[in-house]
């Protein structure tokens, strides 16, 4: 009986201690953020899909962060958001006042190697991932003037597509579709962001884009789809989108001819699951990371946020920060021979 009472007393003491510690951590976070400004950077130009998601989250997240700091969305475009990624890792303040939204493919660059090693100054697994607003499905599209209406047409006719720089989805996806499937793409890269890729198609500088989020098309260019100006040729993701499947758009993993090709495709399109990834630099105090993750999780379930997203025709299918880290960890466990073949494909110039 005495031992039982002692055990109960110890449990109560530990519980009280944990509650006090948790409350102290929350107070500490609130004290730090009260009166502060959080800068939320996106690695693309204003109006791009990533920018739209960044500004929407920035509008709501402040009210869920202890201390209710002011949150300001900013743009730092360059090299398909590689510039922002390197800056976040090496230059940005490590105190929780700088958040970044980068291209979902950038964390895979050390793995797939299409970016020169000297240009990569980060370890993707060391970032503090807050989460993603959506698990994306990307597509390849052709402008109506190209005369390419379905994927089969790409085996006999070349499609000129636009890109943002090494490692970006619009650069990587046509390379892998060419290397594995034999589709004929010619890439014109170096555009600052998604909005610029759309202007390039409209102006006739290129005739398509491969690596465009389906949700972005629906939110920003649905009239192009409805008017038949663009033809959707292929969907690229770990899971097919029901609406695209219903439209008869083939899923890239269904086109693999053997297990090795399937593994290569999975290693490349795993980036789609990261959607619109939000992260903190390495080295941010753990209690602030936990607070910002909790705030992000509350934002993506906030009824007003969801209603606002719906008005903008944004698809919200969130992934937690832990989920982002797990997806990356699984990709980094891909067998070395598979990665070497994928790297060889992405190294080709066309």
Structure description:
By secondary structure, the chain is α/β, with parallel strands linked by helices. It folds into two domains: 35-135 and 273-341, Bordetella uptake gene, domain 1 (D-Maltodextrin-Binding Protein, domain 2), CATH 3.40.190; 138-271, D-Maltodextrin-Binding Protein, domain 2 (3-Layer(aba) Sandwich). The protein is built from 14 helices and eleven strands. It has helices spanning 2-33, 49-61, 82-90, 109-112, 169-181, 194-203, 214-220, 222-226, 242-246, 259-269, 286-299, 303-311, 321-332, 336-347, and strands at 37-42, 70-75, 98-101, 128-132, 138-143, 159-162, 185-188, 208-213, 230-236, 277-280, 319-320. The strands form three sheets. A six-stranded mixed beta sheet has the order 2-1-3-10-4-11, with helices on both faces. Strands 8-5-9 form a three-stranded antiparallel beta sheet. A two-stranded parallel sheet has the order 6-7. α5 (169-181) links the parallel β6 and β7. α5 (169-181) packs antiparallel against α10 (259-269) and α10 (259-269) packs across α14. The longest helix has 32 residues, at 2-33. The chain is globular, with a radius of gyration of 22 Å. The termini are far apart. Mean pLDDT is 91; it is low at 16-21.
């Amino acid at each position: 009986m005495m031992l039982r009472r002692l055990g109960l007393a110890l449990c109560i003491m530990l519980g009280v201690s944990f509650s006090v510690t948790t409350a102290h951590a929350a107070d500490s976070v609130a004290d730090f953020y009260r009166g502060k400004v959080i800068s939320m950077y996106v690695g693309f130009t204003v109006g791009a899909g990533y920018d739209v998601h960044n500004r929407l989250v920035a509008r709501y997240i402040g009210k869920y962060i202890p201390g209710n700091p002011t949150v300001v969305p900013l743009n730092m475009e360059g090299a398909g958001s590689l510039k922002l990624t390197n800056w976040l890792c090496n230059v940005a303040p490590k105190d929780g006042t700088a958040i970044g939204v980068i291209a979902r493919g950038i964390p895979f660059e050390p793995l797939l190697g299409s970016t020169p090693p000297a240009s990569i100054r980060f370890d993707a697994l060391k970032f503090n991932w807050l989460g993603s607003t959506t698990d994306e499905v990307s597509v390849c599209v052709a402008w109506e003037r190209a005369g390419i209406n379905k994927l089969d047409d790409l085996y006999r006719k070349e499609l000129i597509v636009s890109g943002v720089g090494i490692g970006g989805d619009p650069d990587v996806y046509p390379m892998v579709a060419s290397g594995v499937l034999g589709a004929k793409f010619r890439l014109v890269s170096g555009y600052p962001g998604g909005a610029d890729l759309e202007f390039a198609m409209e102006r006739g500088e290129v005739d398509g884009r491969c690596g465009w989020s389906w949700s972005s098309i629906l939110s920003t260019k649905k009239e192009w789809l409805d008017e038949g100006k663009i033809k959707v040729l292929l969907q690229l993701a770990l899971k097919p989108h029901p609406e695209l499947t219903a439209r008869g758009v083939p899923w890239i993993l269904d086109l693999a001819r053997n297990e090795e090709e399937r593994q290569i495709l999975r290693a490349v399109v795993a980036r789609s699951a990261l959607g619109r990834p939000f992260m903190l630099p390495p080295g941010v105090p753990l209690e602030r990371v936990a607070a910002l993750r909790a705030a992000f999780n509350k934002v993506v379930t906030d009824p007003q946020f969801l209603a606002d997203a719906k008005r903008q025709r944004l698809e919200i299918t969130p992934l937690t920060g832990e989920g982002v880290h797990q997806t990356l960890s699984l990709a980094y466990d891909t067998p070395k021979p598979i990665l070497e073949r994928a790297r060889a494909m992405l190294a080709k110039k066309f």
